[in-house]
Amino acid sequence: MHVDCPECNTPVTAEGVNIAKTIAVCKHCDNIFDFEDQFPTTPGQLAVVEKEPDTKLRLKEEIFHIPPGIEVLKIESMLEIMINWRRSGKYFTLFFGVFWNLFIIFFSFMAFFSGGIGAEGIIIFLFMLPFYGVGAYLLYSGIGQLFNTTYVTVYGENLSIEHKPVNFLIQKDRHFSKEEIQQLYVKRYSIGSTNGQPVYAYSVDLVLKNGKRYPLVKNLRSLEAARFIEQEVEEYLNIEDKIVRGEWQGDILKR
Question: What is the pLDDT of residues 186-214, one digit of tens each?
Protein backbone atom coordinates (compact mmCIF):
# COMPACT_ATOMS: atom_id res chain seq x y z
CA MET A 1 0.00 0.00 0.00
CA HIS A 2 1.00 3.65 -0.36
CA VAL A 3 0.67 6.37 2.29
CA ASP A 4 -0.22 9.86 1.03
CA CYS A 5 0.10 13.09 2.98
CA PRO A 6 -3.38 14.53 3.71
CA GLU A 7 -2.01 18.09 3.48
CA CYS A 8 -0.26 18.06 0.10
CA ASN A 9 -1.21 14.59 -1.28
CA THR A 10 2.49 13.72 -1.74
CA PRO A 11 3.36 9.99 -1.38
CA VAL A 12 5.41 9.40 1.78
CA THR A 13 8.61 7.41 1.39
CA ALA A 14 9.27 4.28 3.47
CA GLU A 15 11.75 5.96 5.81
CA GLY A 16 9.07 8.45 6.85
CA VAL A 17 6.59 5.76 7.90
CA ASN A 18 6.33 4.17 11.35
CA ILE A 19 4.11 1.12 10.86
CA ALA A 20 3.94 0.19 14.55
CA LYS A 21 2.45 3.56 15.47
CA THR A 22 0.73 4.27 12.12
CA ILE A 23 2.43 7.67 12.09
CA ALA A 24 4.17 9.20 9.08
CA VAL A 25 6.18 12.32 8.28
CA CYS A 26 5.91 14.06 4.91
CA LYS A 27 9.28 15.40 3.77
CA HIS A 28 7.57 17.70 1.27
CA CYS A 29 5.57 19.81 3.76
CA ASP A 30 6.86 18.54 7.16
CA ASN A 31 3.37 17.35 8.10
CA ILE A 32 3.17 14.55 10.67
CA PHE A 33 -0.04 12.52 10.70
CA ASP A 34 -1.75 9.27 11.67
CA PHE A 35 -2.39 7.18 8.54
CA GLU A 36 -4.46 4.40 10.11
CA ASP A 37 -7.53 5.49 8.10
CA GLN A 38 -5.60 4.88 4.86
CA PHE A 39 -5.46 1.11 5.41
CA PRO A 40 -7.79 -0.86 3.13
CA THR A 41 -11.03 -1.99 4.75
CA THR A 42 -12.96 -3.43 1.80
CA PRO A 43 -15.21 -6.52 2.37
CA GLY A 44 -13.17 -9.65 2.89
CA GLN A 45 -10.01 -7.61 3.52
CA LEU A 46 -9.32 -6.06 6.91
CA ALA A 47 -6.07 -4.34 7.70
CA VAL A 48 -5.14 -4.46 11.36
CA VAL A 49 -2.16 -2.66 12.82
CA GLU A 50 -1.45 -2.95 16.51
CA LYS A 51 -0.10 0.21 18.02
CA GLU A 52 2.34 0.07 20.90
CA PRO A 53 0.58 0.18 24.27
CA ASP A 54 0.24 3.54 25.97
CA THR A 55 1.51 5.37 22.89
CA LYS A 56 1.01 9.13 23.30
CA LEU A 57 1.29 11.98 20.86
CA ARG A 58 4.61 12.98 22.42
CA LEU A 59 7.26 11.10 20.41
CA LYS A 60 10.34 13.05 21.52
CA GLU A 61 12.54 11.30 24.00
CA GLU A 62 12.90 13.03 27.35
CA ILE A 63 16.28 14.63 28.09
CA PHE A 64 17.33 13.92 31.66
CA HIS A 65 20.71 15.67 31.80
CA ILE A 66 21.40 19.37 31.34
CA PRO A 67 23.16 20.11 28.00
CA PRO A 68 26.52 21.97 28.03
CA GLY A 69 26.24 25.75 28.21
CA ILE A 70 22.92 25.66 30.08
CA GLU A 71 22.30 26.15 33.79
CA VAL A 72 18.95 25.57 35.50
CA LEU A 73 17.50 26.94 38.71
CA LYS A 74 14.26 25.18 39.58
CA ILE A 75 12.32 25.83 42.75
CA GLU A 76 8.64 25.51 43.57
CA SER A 77 7.79 29.08 42.58
CA MET A 78 10.22 29.65 39.71
CA LEU A 79 12.09 28.02 36.82
CA GLU A 80 15.08 29.84 35.37
CA ILE A 81 17.11 28.51 32.42
CA MET A 82 20.37 30.37 31.79
CA ILE A 83 22.04 30.00 28.38
CA ASN A 84 25.70 30.98 28.43
CA TRP A 85 26.44 31.73 24.79
CA ARG A 86 30.21 31.75 25.27
CA ARG A 87 30.04 28.12 26.43
CA SER A 88 27.26 26.88 24.16
CA GLY A 89 27.99 28.76 20.91
CA LYS A 90 30.58 28.16 18.20
CA TYR A 91 31.19 31.85 17.41
CA PHE A 92 30.19 31.45 13.76
CA THR A 93 28.49 34.87 13.73
CA LEU A 94 31.51 36.63 15.24
CA PHE A 95 34.01 35.01 12.87
CA PHE A 96 31.79 35.66 9.88
CA GLY A 97 31.29 39.26 11.03
CA VAL A 98 35.04 39.85 11.25
CA PHE A 99 35.59 38.30 7.82
CA TRP A 100 32.70 40.32 6.33
CA ASN A 101 34.00 43.63 7.72
CA LEU A 102 37.58 42.99 6.61
CA PHE A 103 36.33 42.27 3.10
CA ILE A 104 34.11 45.39 3.03
CA ILE A 105 36.92 47.61 4.34
CA PHE A 106 39.32 46.28 1.72
CA PHE A 107 36.73 46.67 -1.07
CA SER A 108 35.86 50.21 0.09
CA PHE A 109 39.50 51.22 0.26
CA MET A 110 40.13 49.98 -3.28
CA ALA A 111 36.95 51.65 -4.55
CA PHE A 112 37.76 55.02 -2.96
CA PHE A 113 41.35 54.77 -4.07
CA SER A 114 40.25 54.36 -7.69
CA GLY A 115 37.25 56.70 -7.53
CA GLY A 116 38.65 59.49 -5.39
CA ILE A 117 36.61 61.66 -3.04
CA GLY A 118 34.48 63.30 -5.71
CA ALA A 119 30.96 62.45 -6.90
CA GLU A 120 31.99 58.93 -7.85
CA GLY A 121 33.35 58.32 -4.36
CA ILE A 122 30.11 59.57 -2.80
CA ILE A 123 28.05 57.23 -5.01
CA ILE A 124 30.24 54.29 -3.99
CA PHE A 125 29.84 55.23 -0.32
CA LEU A 126 26.04 55.38 -0.60
CA PHE A 127 25.99 52.06 -2.46
CA MET A 128 28.04 50.45 0.32
CA LEU A 129 25.92 51.74 3.21
CA PRO A 130 23.72 48.58 3.47
CA PHE A 131 26.87 46.42 3.55
CA TYR A 132 28.30 48.55 6.36
CA GLY A 133 25.04 48.06 8.26
CA VAL A 134 25.17 44.29 7.85
CA GLY A 135 28.77 44.27 9.04
CA ALA A 136 27.95 46.34 12.11
CA TYR A 137 25.05 44.05 13.01
CA LEU A 138 27.14 40.89 12.57
CA LEU A 139 29.81 42.25 14.90
CA TYR A 140 27.20 43.41 17.41
CA SER A 141 25.45 40.03 17.39
CA GLY A 142 28.75 38.14 17.54
CA ILE A 143 29.95 40.15 20.54
CA GLY A 144 26.59 39.54 22.19
CA GLN A 145 27.01 35.80 21.73
CA LEU A 146 30.49 36.05 23.23
CA PHE A 147 29.48 37.87 26.41
CA ASN A 148 25.73 37.39 26.77
CA THR A 149 23.58 35.16 28.93
CA THR A 150 19.96 34.59 27.98
CA TYR A 151 17.51 34.06 30.83
CA VAL A 152 14.31 32.08 30.21
CA THR A 153 12.27 32.54 33.37
CA VAL A 154 8.93 31.04 34.37
CA TYR A 155 7.57 32.76 37.45
CA GLY A 156 4.07 31.83 38.47
CA GLU A 157 1.91 32.13 35.35
CA ASN A 158 4.38 34.31 33.38
CA LEU A 159 7.20 33.53 30.96
CA SER A 160 9.96 36.05 30.25
CA ILE A 161 13.03 36.04 28.00
CA GLU A 162 15.85 38.49 28.74
CA HIS A 163 19.33 38.96 27.22
CA LYS A 164 22.10 40.46 29.38
CA PRO A 165 24.35 42.45 29.36
CA VAL A 166 23.95 43.14 25.59
CA ASN A 167 20.36 43.21 24.38
CA PHE A 168 20.21 41.65 20.89
CA LEU A 169 18.61 43.68 18.11
CA ILE A 170 16.77 40.60 16.81
CA GLN A 171 16.30 38.59 20.01
CA LYS A 172 14.36 41.13 22.02
CA ASP A 173 13.31 40.77 25.64
CA ARG A 174 9.75 39.45 25.74
CA HIS A 175 7.11 38.65 28.33
CA PHE A 176 4.12 36.31 28.01
CA SER A 177 1.41 34.97 30.29
CA LYS A 178 0.55 31.26 30.41
CA GLU A 179 -2.95 32.02 29.07
CA GLU A 180 -1.40 33.32 25.83
CA ILE A 181 0.75 30.25 25.13
CA GLN A 182 -0.57 27.28 23.21
CA GLN A 183 2.60 25.31 22.43
CA LEU A 184 6.40 25.35 22.21
CA TYR A 185 8.35 23.70 19.41
CA VAL A 186 11.85 23.44 17.91
CA LYS A 187 12.85 24.66 14.44
CA ARG A 188 16.03 24.00 12.47
CA TYR A 189 17.38 26.49 9.94
CA SER A 190 20.55 27.05 7.94
CA ILE A 191 22.95 29.81 8.99
CA GLY A 192 25.59 29.23 6.32
CA SER A 193 27.91 26.54 5.03
CA THR A 194 31.37 25.13 5.74
CA ASN A 195 33.31 23.26 3.07
CA GLY A 196 30.14 23.01 1.01
CA GLN A 197 28.16 21.51 3.90
CA PRO A 198 25.24 23.45 5.46
CA VAL A 199 25.62 24.73 9.02
CA TYR A 200 22.41 24.52 11.04
CA ALA A 201 21.11 26.25 14.14
CA TYR A 202 17.98 25.61 16.21
CA SER A 203 15.39 27.83 17.81
CA VAL A 204 12.67 27.30 20.39
CA ASP A 205 9.50 29.07 19.24
CA LEU A 206 6.16 29.86 20.85
CA VAL A 207 2.74 29.36 19.29
CA LEU A 208 0.22 31.69 20.90
CA LYS A 209 -3.49 31.01 21.11
CA ASN A 210 -4.15 33.93 18.75
CA GLY A 211 -2.16 32.12 16.05
CA LYS A 212 0.97 34.30 16.22
CA ARG A 213 4.44 32.77 16.59
CA TYR A 214 7.46 34.23 18.35
CA PRO A 215 11.03 32.97 18.75
CA LEU A 216 11.81 32.23 22.39
CA VAL A 217 15.52 31.44 21.89
CA LYS A 218 17.43 31.45 18.58
CA ASN A 219 20.88 30.43 17.34
CA LEU A 220 21.19 27.30 19.47
CA ARG A 221 23.87 25.05 17.96
CA SER A 222 22.60 21.91 19.70
CA LEU A 223 19.29 20.17 19.02
CA GLU A 224 19.56 18.65 22.48
CA ALA A 225 19.72 22.10 24.08
CA ALA A 226 16.65 23.27 22.14
CA ARG A 227 14.67 20.14 23.06
CA PHE A 228 15.68 20.53 26.71
CA ILE A 229 14.45 24.13 26.89
CA GLU A 230 11.16 23.18 25.22
CA GLN A 231 10.72 20.21 27.54
CA GLU A 232 11.41 22.09 30.78
CA VAL A 233 9.22 25.11 30.01
CA GLU A 234 6.28 22.96 28.86
CA GLU A 235 6.56 20.77 31.94
CA TYR A 236 6.70 23.74 34.33
CA LEU A 237 3.74 25.48 32.65
CA ASN A 238 1.87 22.15 32.42
CA ILE A 239 1.51 22.39 28.62
CA GLU A 240 0.84 19.09 26.84
CA ASP A 241 3.46 18.50 24.20
CA LYS A 242 2.02 18.26 20.68
CA ILE A 243 3.47 18.23 17.19
CA VAL A 244 3.40 21.66 15.50
CA ARG A 245 3.54 22.48 11.79
CA GLY A 246 7.05 23.59 10.92
CA GLU A 247 8.64 21.73 13.85
CA TRP A 248 11.96 20.02 13.17
CA GLN A 249 11.07 16.34 13.00
CA GLY A 250 14.40 14.75 12.11
CA ASP A 251 14.48 12.76 15.35
CA ILE A 252 10.74 12.33 15.91
CA LEU A 253 10.44 8.74 14.67
CA LYS A 254 13.50 7.23 16.32
CA ARG A 255 11.54 5.09 18.77
Answer: 999 987 777 888 888 899 999 999 989 99
Give CA separation, 73 vs 8, 83, 89, 234, in Å.
43, 12, 21, 15
Q: What is the C-alpha to C-alpha distance for residues 103 and 177, in angstroms, rounded to an integer?
A: 45
Q: Are 82 and 148 in contact (CB under 8 A)?
A: no
pTM: 0.60
**Under a CB-based contact definition with an 8 Å cutoff, are residues 85 and 149 in contact?**
yes
The DSSP element (H or E) to which 236 belongs, if any, is helix 223-237
The most confident of the ranges 21-30, 139-148, 204-213 is 204-213
DSSP state letters, 84-136 = EHHHH---HHHHHHHHHHHHHHHHHHHHHHHHTTSHHHHHHHHHHHHHHHHHH
Decide if domain 70-89+148-237 falls under CATH 2.30.29. yes
